[in-house]
Amino acid sequence: MMANAQAETLHFQAEVKQLMDIVVHSLYSNKEIFLRELISNASDAIDKLRFEALSDSALYESDSSLQIHVSYDEKARTITISDNGIGLTREEAMSHLGTIAKSGTREFLSHLTGDQKKDAHLIGQFGVGFYSAFMVADKITVNSRRAGMTKEHGVCWESKGDGEYVVTNIEKAARGTDVILHLKAGEDEFLSDWRLRSIITKYADHITVPILMKAMNEEGKLGESWETVNRALALWTQPKSIITDEQYQTFYKHIAHAFNEPLAWTHHKVEGSHIDYTSILYLPKEAPFDLWQRDAQHGLKLYVQRVFIMDKVEQFLPNYLRFVSGVLDTTALPLNISREILQDHPSIAKLRSALVRHVLDLLERLQKDEPEKFALFWQAFGNVLKEGVVEDFANRDRLATLFRFASTHSDSNEQTVSLSDYVKRMKPKQKNIYYITAENTNAAKSSPHLEIFRKNNIEVVLLTDRIDEWVVGHLPQFDGKALQSVAKGDLQLDELIDEAELKSQEQTEKKVKETLDPLLTKIEKALGNKIKSVRLSHRLTDSPACLVRDQSALGPQMERLMKAAGQDVLEVKPILELNPAHPIVNSLSHEQNEERLKEWTELLYEQALLAEGSQLQDPAYFVKRVNKLWMEIVDKRG
Ligand code: ADP
Ligand code: MG
After folding, report:
1. Which residues, listed in sequence order, are joined to residue 481 by a DSSP beta bridge?
2. Three-state DSSP class for 627?
3. How close is the Cα of 40 to the center of ligand 1, in Å?
4. Which residue's alpha carbon is nearest to atom 8 within ligand 1?
């Protein structure tokens, strides 16, 4: 006997305890899913055995008929789920059933609110797993033995779900795992042949492993022979025409561990071309909790010739489509493929570009035929999809047609306008697509840079997501039209502006040129190296001044983002533009006191910084300056 044969009592990881409490309290109206979760684990364990046995057939121990048995005992008030899959060692039982390995678990748990409805929803995205069994059981016993080990190496794991569990060494002749649920008082509804069968057909029809229950004998009592309850067919191998929407939806819930229906799916069977494969790809309705977690695992379930190979295989989809889940079954890869070989197998690139095409086709179809669904998709995943313009150069143009933005020409602040919508509304002589970047839609809408556009009814796209500036940086044009920031370079709007307006602009400039030229020189001197230069503006109608960047410079948004990420940013000085028609500018040109001119100039510059969303170097000094100038007016009034 081994030294640690005796019982050992251990504590659950704190997160397990927390998760267990939440699952038990927020999912009580959906209790039956415990069976789905335990069957899914049993089926995973069988898949793992089948995969490991590809290179070591001795693991079958002369029993290669892989099955799951579900039974119940009315007297003992237990339900037992048995599999002859890979099994658990003592150490595995402790780590897999006593801790949660998922990255981001702690952060996820901290988002839970205590509001049962909301939490039930979040927990669905997280995946409830094994611990859901504590909804119906007040004690769970897991007897297991790892495939390939001798019968003395069995383990019994047992817990009342109260914060501790006990592990003991046991003898177990059959490999695999028995999960025995000791039902709580009041859960007797599950001690029913009919009830268990209906849950199994509801959730597990497409599980490819047979699930067996005892058959009824002639007297209508449970007999001793077993019969298969589920259909056990691989959904993706069925002809599309006979699969119902409901079957697709149930299958999604199984592979994505989801509670919700998927938003949409696409099923392809490609044979006889250069590469054979079948795929079902799903778009979820909502972002999973770990969408932005760097080390979170995403990806497809991979089958080779119907044999399950691996879960969460990332190679088949680019990162910007990481929200897609589904299955891929192919003959183009060898059965004994490992994650390492997967990296550079020549078929991967081909499969990947085919699958990307399917997802983009699906999105285009939604955009065209089901705009409400597409809007939901954009809300949940738009920011992720945008990463594609950088990651997937080849599909840049297709992706750009899917993007949605807020715009000066839509009433809401929602992202609903496509670049194609914009192009359709462009003025006859307009060559560029104009955009502005800002912290939020309201800030964008009140920016001084929009004044001339608003006055002339030229549409401007409002970019308010953190990655937008980076995205447009990689999207120089759309449909032959350049994307142009309203805050960069020397705008060439002449052709778009009303002729009379242009005339009056020219006249004002001519009139004020003599007085303003010396002012520009003085201001340039006063602001010194804070700015690159000062010039008269054609962008402003209401504001006295604004800041403009060179065409090639980073925008203020991007600059802040990069600084925040600790990157060195090459400082490019802005250009200060003055509104020649503005009374403030005009009054400045009459200011004789050099000291006061400097103060007013600084104020003008700092205001322009604030208006573009930048931070002041010395905000307290700005306040002092405003109050000082204010006091002068107060004093004058006496
Ligand atoms: P998940 O299935 O998402 O990994 P679960 O909470 O359902 O999470 O299960 C936790 C882990 O416990 C599994 O990853 C697996 O390692 C182990 N496990 C659970 N049930 C079985 C089983 N029947 N056979 C072997 N291992 C199992
Ligand atoms: Mg599971």
Report:
1. 478
2. helix
3. 9
4. 129
Tokens found for residue 334 = 């060898």
What stretch(es) of the chain map to CATH 3.40.50.11260?
Answer: 403-486
Q: How many CB atoms lie within 10 A of CB 501?
A: 13
- According to CATH, the topology of domain 403-486 is Rossmann fold (3.40.50)
Radius of gyration of the chain (CA): 33
The ligand whose atoms approach the alpha carbon of 131 most closely is: 1
Q: Which atom of ligand 1 is nearest to the CA of 127?
A: 3
* CATH for the 7-233 domain, from 3.40.50.2300, 3.40.30.10, 3.30.565.10, 3.40.50.1820: 3.30.565.10
Indicate the pTM of the whole model.
0.82
Residue with the smallest CA separation from ligand 1 atom 7 is 129
- Could you tell which of 68, 84, 86, 130 is best to mutate to test the pocket of ligand 1, judged by most ligand atoms within 8 Å of the CB? 130
Reported as a single tens digit per residue, the pLDDT across 576-616 is 999 999 999 999 988 889 898 999 999 999 999 999 888 89
Residue nearest to ligand 1 atom 16, measured at CA = 96
pLDDT 10s digits, 317-358: 999 999 999 999 999 998 877 777 787 888 999 999 999 999
Phi and psi based region of residue 578 (left: phi greater than 0; alpha: psi -120 to 50; beta: remaining):
beta
The span from the first CA to the last CA of the chain, in angstroms, equals: 101
